[in-house]
Amino acid sequence: MKNFLFTLFIFSFSTIITAQPEEGYQYTQNKTYTYQQAQDIYKSLAKKYDKAKFYPVGKSDIGLDINVFIISGDKDFNPKSLQDKNRSVLLINNAIHPGEPCGVDASIKLAYDLLSSDKYAELLEQTLVCIIPFYNVGGGLNRSCCSRANQNGPEEYGFRGNFKNRDLNRDFIKCDTKNAQIFTQIYHTCKPDVFIDTHTTNGSDFQYTMSLIASQPDKLNQHLRDYLRNTMLPFLYEDMKKKKKEIIPYVYNYKKTPDDGIKDYLDSPRYSTGYSTLFNGIGFVTEALKYKPYKDRVEHTYEFLMTTLKWMYKNHDELKAVRKKAIEDVISQTEFELAWIHDTTLYEQIDFKGYEVEYVESEFGENAKYQTYNQNKPYTKKINYYNRYKATTKITKPTAYIIPQAYTKVIERFKWNKINMKQLTKDTIADVEMYYITDYKTVKQPYEGHYLHYGVTVKTKVVPVKFYKGDYIVFVNQPGNRYIVETLEPQGMDSFFAWNFFDGILQQKEWFSAFSFEATAKEMLANDKNLKADFDKKKQEDSEFAKSRNQQLFYLYKKSPYYEDTHNRYPIARLIKN
């Protein structure tokens, strides 16, 4: 047994030492690295170069490590020291969808080039590079040739869902997976100024090899919004064009084809860039087009990473200053937006390089045609780019929220996201604003393990509520204000209410027996003239109510002291005064 373990150790060690990317990048052979190969390469680079460190952060849902690889130009890896030096931080996340592995290979090439060549040294002078080599470990181990239909390479790749069959790019708020919990640790340790999540897309076909989703500017703080839209994005597009790796905004069709225009994707906080927006980060999703050769897709992804680093090097001081203003703003900000709709009245025109759309007779069904793109008929034309959104729901922030300690899942997630909280030291009765859920809709099919609520409406009532020693008070005066507000306000697109964290309030617990309540109902009407007037008016206006004994008794039951005042009462209190 000892000899076997020794042999196994020597084999594993030699694999780590010899797993050098300079032996030949796999993507040039239409292959992508496995989870273990990627870890071995990063371990090898960290051993060889003192500007690099490789850290295991925690176990994924399948029990294997999620790691982070950090490159520091001055060999300083202390978060506090780096913060004091005002370093900018680029965080790159790979294989959230392991069937879209362009970033896995592009980041390995990036890491090797940054470490092995002096010509890139200036890019690291004031920027720390953090790479998550393989985020969705379980999906990465579930490799096959064919889980993504008609994808043009690599020969074998991972699966979209993780080991719990969850799409991790829908899990940044609800944090159902260990993966997402670990990501919050990485994110708040690295504190990225710029975040890039690498993907591959399908759908329309066009001449570009890669498209780009940026943080939706209209959801960003005003300083970041203008900076991203007017300064940073134009540079990124122009620099990629100079490299002959031209890219286009994500091709999300406004109608049927790109000819009708494209629109911005609304990245709510369940998605990676929507999550980074909550903390005033600038986020990008690279979307390489699956129909293009894998080698080209990886090289475009690599060049975009390099272009972003080039931007961060040239604009370090301005980037840090703009983010500082945004963070200061959000601390003092009083009004917050919770939901948005596409504003189709505003658009700009952009050049688009596409293929002529043709409709071909299908061999399936009767008189059916399908849409295809004729690559022998390329074109360049102006199209409308609908890239504006407007807020539909706004709230004024309270001084603080009070979270009952019973809601441990909410409290856990606040802790993971470094939200400052205090616990009450004694039982307290306070007059607070409480929401009552007046209406909501729910999806018919489970979505990522939940029955997501939407279309939420509320009414507000100031009532005295008893809170208990150990309940949590969250003051809305901190850099994480957007995370606090957008998760705790029930009308938020990805609020904890929307994700079913508070469904217990939606079910009435106590009822009445009609035969015994009849006498009480008569007594109520006899003793309250206003109630009697309202009751009679409702009978006159609602014929169904006038005929139904059950409806009439329930109406009066809800007006009685026996009806539970916590039914549909959202349990998170809004403290308006200190």
Characteristic key phrases:
578 residues, alpha/beta, Aminopeptidase, 3 domains, eight-stranded mixed sheet, four-stranded antiparallel sheet, 19 strands, 25% strand, globular, disordered N terminus
What does the model show?
By secondary structure, the protein is of the alpha/beta class. It has three domains: 2-194 and 210-250 and 265-332, Zn peptidases (Aminopeptidase, 3-Layer(aba) Sandwich); 397-507, no CATH class; 514-559, no CATH class. The chain is built from 16 helices and 19 strands. It has helices spanning 2-18, 35-48, 79-84, 102-116, 137-141, 178-190, 222-242, 272-277, 294-314, 316-332, 408-416, 481-488, 514-527, 529-541, 543-547, 549-559; strands at 52-59, 65-71, 88-93, 127-132, 194-201, 210-214, 247-249, 262-263, 282-289, 335-342, 348-361, 369-386, 389-396, 400-403, 422-423, 428-442, 453-467, 472-475, 573-575. Strands 1-2-4-3-5-9-6-7 form an eight-stranded mixed beta sheet. A four-stranded antiparallel beta sheet has the order 15-18-14-19, with no helix packed on it. It has a three-stranded mixed beta sheet with strand order 8-12-11, with no helix packed on it. A hairpin with a 7-residue loop joins strand 11 and strand 12. Residues 1-18 have low confidence and may be disordered.
